[in-house]
Design brief:
It is a single chain. By secondary structure, the protein is an all-beta fold. It is 3% helix and 33% strand. A 12-stranded parallel sheet has the order 7-8-11-14-17-21-25-29-33-37-41-44, with helices on one face. Strands 9-12-15-18-22-26-30-34-38-42-45 form an 11-stranded parallel sheet, with no helix packed on it. A hairpin with a 4-residue loop joins strand 2 and strand 3 (22-24).
């Protein structure tokens, strides 16, 4: 009884197959040994056995027979575990047994209650209730890039193979009977770009063996391979849904690298990733054109670039909703005109909402490193987001900038935490810009309330009252905590240390932002399960200022060993990117932490990041948060050889050291057997932590 899923591992040699659960260590000499350690996630309570056996050997073993399943032989071992407590999810579909029986009326022992081949979780995401999960779909296409040729798409055994085979078979569905396209999310299955023009279409990653796909652990990959087109395009006129997809390799000359939503399309993206896309104009990760709409939930938009006027991560002229998502490590380069928005650019002619997200380490060459809101003609809400490590040059507001807000619609900026962002302003005539929140508004219909802006800087490095917040023109501020270095507060707000702990939780006994809001937590929609307490107690009574977590973030108190992501040596005079993550088996860091790297060994090596912030002293750098639990710095080496020791500081707590070999040797020549580890991960992007 009981179930588990292997998600990662550490090996000294050879290769591990996640799907077959087999390890081939290669030849092992007499008296030698080799080891494999795997990390598994337990899915429910109840005892189960983990079993390992030598299945094949090229040499004769005198006292055992490989692969015969006999526990009495010495090539066979078992380990029993008995996990207890937690949320029960008997079928492993990501929906608790209690919700299946009490809310959705689905079968907790089957990931596909109605037997149509579509997981309950997908159908619930589409419908918002259990109606579709209890009513078999009449149109389901199965697609597997690894299937034999000649299938008609009617089942996994008869699966189609390519995107080109899908389009001729698509027809519009209805709200009560959508058309489903299920694509194998096996690690090596990739699909060419797809354009959906039909209505009520659901495109979802799935397991070709019929097992449940754990959210964040598998994606159907659409890879444009840089061929001058988006990875996915939606242009119908009725709802279309993407679930469990990875959009990558898009490189159109126009808008929308990963996803382009156009016409009157109404698009929804759930539990997905947009990463590694470029756009020649706006929207590296995605673009929503005027008249269209897009809703993102539980999605990561990371490592995308836009070369036009805005939106390294995403660009919206139409209506946009982003919830419970991560916008991280995106870049916006200027294409002329009025650029801005390294993470998101809101240019909407319609209403937008950006709530409950992590906006991390994005960069813009102009306004709004994290978000730029400009010329908004619809009510817009930016609520309960964490802005950390964003930066910009030649513009305003590294965390958030809003300008050109017109009469009529309301822009509300509420309950955000904006920290450790930096702007570098080279614009003539502007001596003061804010690294945190910078507003330039034409009307008084901008409400800024219950936010925290702290430890943000401009380019001169001198603490100024305007480093964290500045407003030009009319806006209304109330009950914010804006650091002004005077302790008096500006515009009726306060300036009291929020005392961040373990990421950006608030120290409940000493934070100046606890119970300092202008309303109640319930009225703001931020009562339990929302919390600012590291102990995960829900916010009750008077609202705490700043960002509220929706679940317990990963702590780092016992996570003191860190390694680089790549086992490699570094040439003398080579600049190299170092990726920081926990040592295998340690508690994961997760996104949204303050991670600094410190070097004190001399001036011939410098640690750099996308900001000039030095959170742990003059020889430190703020690591860029990549949104997947890993952090990045650049080691700029000049003429130094030998080993450099770098200290890692996580949330102001020592996190161990990184040893980097600066030898005059070929890159990649490090010795795995010397004690460094190779890390294997089922997917290149980690599970989204929401």
């Amino acid at each position: 009884a009981g179930r588990q899923q292997v998600v990662a591992g550490r090996l000294e040699r050879g290769a591990f197959d996640f799907d077959a659960f087999t390890w081939n260590p290669g030849p092992i000499a007499a008296s030698d040994s080799a080891s494999l350690v795997v990390q598994a996630e337990v899915k429910d309570t109840g005892a189960f056995q983990a079993t390992a056996e030598v299945s094949v050997s090229l040499l004769n073993d005198p006292d055992s027979t490989p692969g015969n399943g006999l526990a009495s032989e010495d090539d066979y071992a078992q380990r029993a575990t008995n996990p207890v407590g937690g949320v029960h999810d008997s079928d492993g579909d990501g929906i608790s047994d209690a919700d299946e029986t009490g809310i959705y009326l689905t079968n907790p022992n089957s990931a596909d209650s109605d037997g149509d081949g579509v997981e309950d979780r997908v159908e619930i995401l589409v419908a918002g209730d259990g109606s579709l999960a209890n009513s078999p779909a009449s149109q389901v296409l199965f697609v597997n890039a690894n299937a034999p040729a000649g299938g008609d798409g009617s089942s996994w055994s008869q699966a189609l193979r390519t995107s080109a085979e899908i389009a001729p078979l698509l027809s519009s569905g209805s709200a009560v009977d959508p058309v489903y396209v299920l694509l194998s999310a096996d690690d090596n299955a990739r699909y060419a770009p797809l354009t959906v023009t039909q209505n009520h279409i659901v495109v979802a990653g799935a397991r070709a063996d019929g097992s449940a796909l754990v959210p964040g652990r598998g994606f159907a990959t659409f890879d444009a391979q840089g061929n001058n087109q988006p990875a996915f395009t939606i242009s119908g006129s009725a709802p279309a849904h993407l679930v469990n997809v990875l959009l990558t390799g898009g490189q159109p000359a126009g808008q929308g690298g990963g996803l382009r939503v156009e016409g009157a399309a109404d698009a929804y993206v759930h539990d997905s990733i947009m990463a590694g896309n470029d756009a020649g104009q706006e929207g590296g990760g995605f673009s929503v054109l005027s008249g269209a709409s897009l809703s993102l939930t539980d999605t990561m938009v990371s490592s995308n670039t836009a070369y036009g006027q805005g939106g390294g991560g995403g660009y919206a002229q139409g209506a946009l909703t982003v919830r419970n998502s991560i916008i991280a490590d995106n870049i916006q380069w200027s294409g002329g005109g009025q650029p801005g928005g390294g993470g998101l650019a809101l240019r909407g002619n319609s209403a937008s909402e950006v709530s409950d997200n992590l906006i991390l380490a994005n960069f813009s060459v102009a306004d709004g490193g994290g978000i730029h809101a400009n010329l908004i003609n619809g009510n817009t809400l930016i609520h309960n987001n964490l802005f950390v490590g964003n930066s910009n040059i030649d513009g305003f507001g590294a965390g958030l900038h809003a300008d050109g807000i017109n009469l009529g619609p309301t822009l509300t900026i509420s309950s955000n935490t904006v920290a450790l962002n930096q702007t570098v302003n080279n614009l003539s005539g502007f001596d003061q810009v804010a690294g945190g929140i910078d507003l330039w508004t034409n009307a008084d219909n901008v409400l800024v309330t219950n936010n925290i802006a702290w430890d943000n800087v401009d380019d001169d490095g001198t603490p100024e009252s305007t480093d964290n917040f500045i407003q030009r023109g009319a806006s209304s501020t109330a009950s914010n905590n804006f650091e002004d270095f005077a302790g008096a507060g500006l515009n009726g707000d306060i300036d009291v240390d929020p005392v961040f702990i373990e990421s950006f939780y608030l120290h409940q006994a000493s934070s100046g932002s606890v119970d300092a809001g202008s309303t109640t937590a319930a009225a703001a929609g931020l009562d339990a399960p929302y919390t600012t307490d590291v102990a995960a107690s829900g916010d009750v009574g008077t609202l705490d200022q700043g960002f509220h977590y929706t679940e317990r973030s990963t702590g780092i108190a016992d996570n003191v060993e860190m390694v680089t992501a790549y086992c490699r040596d570094v040439w003398i005079d080579e600049n190299v990117t170092l990726i920081i993550r926990p040592r295998w088996g340690a508690k994961p860091i997760g996104p949204g932490h303050k991670v600094a790297v410190l070097y004190t060994g001399g001036q011939s090596t410098t640690v750099l990041s996308i900001t000039a912030l030095r959170p742990a002293g003059s020889d430190s750098a703020l690591a860029a948060d990549q949104g997947d639990g890993t952090y990045r710095v650049l080691l700029a080496n000049s003429g130094l050889s030998g080993t450099v020791n770098l200290s890692v500081i996580v949330d102001d707590v020592g996190g161990g050291t990184l040893d980097v070999d600066l030898s005059d040797a070929e890159v990649g020549a490090c010795d795995v057997d010397s004690g460094r580890e190779r890390f294997i991960q089922r997917n290149p992007w980690l599970q989204i932590p929401f």
